[in-house]
Amino acid sequence: MKLFLDTADVAVIRDMVPTGMVDGVTTNPSLIAKSGRNIAEVIAEICALVEGPISAEAVSLDFETMVKEGDKLAAIAPNVVVKLPLTWDGLRACRVFADKGIKTNVTLCFSAAQALLAAKAGATFVSPFVGRLEDNGADGIGLLEEIRVLYDVHGFDTQILAASLRNVNHVAAAAVAGSDAATFGADTFKALVNHPLTDKGLDAFVADWAKTGQSIL
Ligand code: E4P
């Protein structure tokens, strides 16, 4: 499963890249607003830092303007993925980009029926929002499982990009559910490595090693 950072904060991305685990980045209009930066500038900087797919979202709601915005975003760098909302206009725009060979991420997916439409529109990625479903009392991980079955049964190549993941358990469950990629913030990214028994075991190894008086170097 590919691991993407969900942020428009270039400093955060720069900090996480040396882990060698950042396979891509997703942004959305709220994250761009939070960065306080110009979208074209920030997306260009992110694309220079990370070779993998970088999602940049069109913000208009009508098909024609969405296509114009997507064309502009895609021209920023070859690894830009045009992010489009799961609406009829967004799906129409998705088909236009798919036919031009431009990668897309159909976002704000909350049902298997919507995921079916994204795949039929030729989406490269579909983003089911796990955390926001759970916020509304629904089963977000269950949706990932349903979409996996749906895409496998029908042979769709659209990749499932588990989104709105809020904690380590979400990331692990998204992987078990067969998601192709997962996106989440830097705090969750950093926490993936943690386990109290790793810390406890390491403390014991360090203490026992000190007693030997040896050095490997
Ligand atoms: C994904 O593409 C979205 O940017 C993101 O995962 C939304 O997460 P949130 O529900 O925590 O805002």
Automatic annotation (TrEMBL):
Catalytic residues (positions): 83
Gene Ontology molecular function: aldehyde-lyase activity; transaldolase activity
Enzyme Commission code: 2.2.1.2
Keyword annotations of the record: Cytoplasm, Pentose shunt, Schiff base, Transferase
Gene3D superfamilies recorded: Aldolase class I
UniProt keyword Transmembrane helix present: no
The protein's annotated pathway: Carbohydrate degradation; pentose phosphate pathway; D-glyceraldehyde 3-phosphate and beta-D-fructose 6-phosphate from D-ribose 5-phosphate and D-xylulose 5-phosphate (non-oxidative stage): step 2/3
CDD domains named in the record: Transaldolase_FSA
GO cellular component: cytoplasm
Enzyme class, first EC level, given as a word: transferase
Subcellular location: Cytoplasm
Record-level GO BP terms: carbohydrate metabolic process; ketone catabolic process; pentose-phosphate shunt
Catalytic activity field: D-sedoheptulose 7-phosphate + D-glyceraldehyde 3-phosphate = D-erythrose 4-phosphate + beta-D-fructose 6-phosphate
Known function: Transaldolase is important for the balance of metabolites in the pentose-phosphate pathway.
Family matches, as HAMAP family: Transaldolase_3b (MF_00494)
Protein family: Belongs to the transaldolase family. Type 3B subfamily.
Annotated NCBIfam families: fsa_talC_mipB
Listed name of the protein: Probable transaldolase
